[in-house]
Amino acid sequence: MTLVYQSTRDANNTVTASQAILQGLATDGGLFTPISYPQVELDFTKLKDASYQEVAKLILSAFLDDFTDQELDDCINNAYDSKFDTLEIAPLVKLNGQYNLELFHGSTIAFKDMALSILPHLMTTAAKKHGLKNKIVILTATSGDTGKAAMAGFADVPGTEIIVFYPKDGVSKVQELQMTTQTGDNTHVVAIEGNFDDAQTNVKRMFNDAALRERLAAHKLQFSSANSMNIGRLVPQIVYYVYAYVQLVKTGQIQAGEAVNFAVPTGNFGNILAAYYAKQIGLPVGKLICASNENNVLTDFFKTHVYDKMRSFKVTSSPSMDILVSSNLERLIFHLLGNSAEKTADLMKSLNQHGQYELTDFDPAILELFAAEYATEVETAAEIKRVYEASDYIEDPHTAVASAVYQKYRTATGDETKTVIASTASPYKFPVVAVEAVTGQTGLSDFEALAKLHELSGVAVPPAVDGLENAQVRHKTTVAADQMQAAVESYLGL
Questions:
Q1: Among 160, 185, 236, 429, which one has the highest count of C-beta atoms within 10 angstroms of its own C-beta?
Q2: pLDDT single digits (tens) 315-358
Q3: 112 is catalytic
Q4: Strand bridging mode 10-15 / 5-7
Q5: What pairing do the DSSP bridges indicate for beta strands 135-141 and 160-167?
């Protein structure tokens, strides 16, 4: 039986996996979400010898069940290859008191590579499958990492254009240069005067604009998304949680069946939602620890059941989490409300109109899975230093947020369950923050800090940032947030 993906806002809007990947976002503004879970045989005694690619095949064939075996094999083999600098793809590193799952070994040294290496292949395969003649226009808002990873994935892929918007002063210098130097005739990058939420709100608005959709169709174009709003981005993220567990069994750290906690630095809620789906298909998960920075809207939500975006937006040292509207939370809300599209649509309307909603009459068992806390800027820097001194290992600021929150959780609960920290980026993406936290040295430029970080960590400077200083800046456009659609129309010749 083919898995059904339904919009979170309309019970009648249902599609298959390949259709959901092509569309990205539902035309009613909702997100395509599984309304039942596939049966997956998680036999850890067998899986412990499986490669990352084999685990990916197991998970993807269950969730993307209208793709053939051959199609999935081709997508997986093209995605998880020499673009990653280790055969393990996502190695698990044992530190003093925790395990860090390194999700940054891909071509742009952030966890987004894990899914965005495969999404272009899934999307072009889906387009062929449905006889799509239109060119796919990937429209994406980024808080720093998705943009580069999506462009690296889609650069010069036939039948696609990609347009990325990012907040001009809301990403690190390395993140910005990674985007603005991106090659590929079909890649476009635009800085906006505003924050990530402004970029994301306007991208969603363009997706939901029926008149714009018609004009695109007349030019044989259609939008899709590379954000985790697209299930083709979300489902591949389930894989690495299963793989992390498999590694723990393989190395004798746990017995098969033993529960494990995951602490995940959380902005848009996609990464931790993938861990929730891993639990739903049988992964033995104890707690999902949702870690926020000072933009702690999710911490407050889990503690009070009120989602309130009406608060001051803070620019922090972990910019990929500087988000006040966590899009993917809508999927969890949908599940919490017994997969009720009607109730979910009402709450999202309230968020849109009043800037908040309150969750009532929900499934408490789902919420019980989650613990939530946040780390301040001072705590994040202190955690980078603590981990360096304890384990001779340097975390990036996003990973450090999750690591600091885990320490708080452990102290507050006494829970000694083995815990995996989702390590979402290389410190080389945020060298100034990392070096300052470890040494107290201030005033370094990004590229001075890169050299210093190499000296401190002994880890080679990754190709993703090596030579970045001298790379040609190809994308120089900046627009006001309300001019984003005009920029899209200009690129597409509408």
A1: 429
A2: 999 999 999 999 999 999 999 999 999 999 999 999 999 999 99
A3: yes
A4: antiparallel
A5: parallel
SS (HEC) of 62-122: HHCCCCCHHHHHHHHHHHCCCCCCCCCCCCEEEECCEEEEECCCCCCCECHHHHHCCHHHH
Give phi and psi for 283, each to the nearest 5: -70, 130
Q: Are 188 and 163 in contact (CB under 8 A)?
A: yes
Report the run of H or E that residue 204 belongs to, with start and end: helix 196-207
Per-residue pLDDT, 228: 86
pTM of structure:
0.95
Handedness of CA 83, 85, 91, 95 (dihedral sign): negative
Closest CA to 290 of 311, 323, 318, 262: 262
Strands of 142-239, DSSP E: 160-167, 187-193, 221-224
C-alpha–C-alpha distance, residues 317 and 294, integer Å: 10
Give the 3-state secondary structure of residue 458. Answer: coil
Catalytic residue, chosen from 46, 48, 112, 250, is 112
List, for the chain, all residue ranges whose pLDDT scores fall below the cut of 70: 1
Tokens of 136: 């796919």
Note the pLDDT of residue 172.
87
Q: Which two tokens stand for residue 77?
A: 């083999």
Q: What are phi and psi of 188, to 5 degrees?
A: -140, 135
Q: Which residues does 153 contact at the CB level (< 8 Å), separation at least 6? A: 116, 117, 119, 120, 226
Q: What CA–CA distances, in Å, run from 3 to 21, 39, 60, 235?
A: 13, 11, 12, 13
Apex 280 CA angle, 84 and 105, nearest 5: 10
Angle of helix 377-391 versus helix 397-413 axis, rounded to 10: 90
Q: Tell the residue number behind the tokens 């649509």, with chain if given.
A: 345
Looking at residue 425, the DSSP 8-state letter turns out to be B
Q: Is the distance from CB of 92 to CB of 244 less than 8 angstroms?
A: yes
